[in-house]
């Protein structure tokens, strides 16, 4: 269609990226060819290396090219606090938004029997073992506020209590800067019911 | 920040793609690692090959990995019609949207003295030569409707007339399916002034 089979192949391959349809893949390919050949070649080489070398941290299961990730291997992080998230995306969000200095455990999913995601797939045997070692004092459950995330949170809370460890959840409520009008009803009801003294 | 320097490097490298900021680069990197390693490796290899091998067609200047592109090399295309576009993006748009079966000439830019884009940079010597060869009967000027595109169109029209060749422009007007309310004033005024019999 544009006279270059290789260009058509590049446009097609770019569509494996999330949120990239035909139009933006085309725009990307043209821009790479027209203005960014050097940076594009660098991207291709970093991508190859990352996809071949990045595995999972043996302690927290987040993405890591070393057996133990930079967070788990950092002696400055508080090993008494363990925050459980569904994926490295949430880990990164918490790292960027908060001053949290504890450790993480990444489920790489959520409980979802229909998708074959049970406790074994989420590495909960390893988490149980970690809790049994006695170092963790508080399990901060930061699964997503979806039906499956809530079910997973419930399961994790039971696991913590069985091990005699304090479990906590992120607070729900109206987002900062969010207008009440646009907050979903469930969140609003929850925030209203859990209202705090304004003194 | 996420415990993997290589992952941070991948996120950073993805930002050379147009329209990709920090957040979407992160989402792309995670998705590639979590679900698309095979397709990601394929993308990296196609990208490397494309950026190394794709040059420009010696006849129309569009992207091509062969000396002459698939359109110029196609004996079924009408060599009496030559459509001039600013970039391969517009060439692809016209190929996809219309039944045009003529040939193209790609400027790879537009007249813009301040950016050092003059007739030489747009390959107009080659275009002049092509017009002098006598095969082209109509020069279809399809530059973008911007100030620089219009100036370029004007220059091209003079070039055609100097060579005794008919020059035409794409029709301006209200886009099909566009609501009048949302059409910009210049286009609306132009469409109104150029109104045609409704018989
Ligand atoms: Zn780790
Ligand atoms: Zn060509």
Automatic annotation (TrEMBL), chains A, B:
A zinc finger (C4-type) spans 57-72. Residues 80-175 form the Toprim domain. Pfam families: RecR_C, RecR_HhH, RecR_ZnF, Toprim_4. GO terms for molecular function: DNA binding; zinc ion binding. GO terms for biological process: DNA recombination; DNA repair. Keywords: DNA damage, DNA recombination, DNA repair, Metal-binding, Zinc, Zinc-finger. InterPro entries: DNA_Rcmb_RecR, Rcmb_RecR, Rcmb_RecR_Znf, TOPRIM_dom, TOPRIM_RecR. May play a role in DNA repair. It seems to be involved in an RecBC-independent recombinational process of DNA repair. It may act with RecF and RecO. NCBIfam families: recR. Belongs to the RecR family. This is Recombination protein RecR. It comes from Frateuria aurantia (strain ATCC 33424 / DSM 6220 / KCTC 2777 / LMG 1558 / NBRC 3245 / NCIMB 13370).
């Amino acid at each position: 269609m544009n006279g270059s089979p290789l260009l058509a192949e590049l446009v097609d391959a770019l569509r494996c990226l999330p949120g990239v349809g035909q139009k933006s893949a085309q725009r990307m390919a043209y821009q790479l060819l027209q203005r960014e050949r050097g940076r594009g070649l660098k991207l291709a080489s970093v991508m190859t290396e990352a996809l071949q070398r990045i595995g999972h941290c043996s302690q927290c299961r987040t993405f890591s090219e070393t057996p133990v990730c930079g967070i788990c291997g950092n002696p400055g992080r508080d090993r008494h606090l363990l925050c459980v998230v569904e994926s490295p995306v949430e880990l990164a969000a918490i790292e960027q938004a908060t001053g949290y200095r504890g450790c993480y455990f990444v489920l790489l999913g959520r409980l979802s029997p229909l998708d074959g995601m049970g406790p074994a797939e989420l590495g909960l045997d390893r988490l149980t073992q970690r809790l049994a070692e006695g170092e963790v004092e508080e399990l901060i459950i930061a699964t997503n506020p979806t039906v499956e995330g809530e079910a997973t949170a419930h399961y994790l809370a039971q696991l913590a209590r069985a091990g005699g460890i304090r479990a906590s959840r992120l607070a729900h409520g109206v987002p900062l800067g969010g207008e009440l009008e646009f907050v979903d009803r469930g969140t609003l009801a929850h925030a209203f019911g859990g209202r705090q003294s304004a003194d």
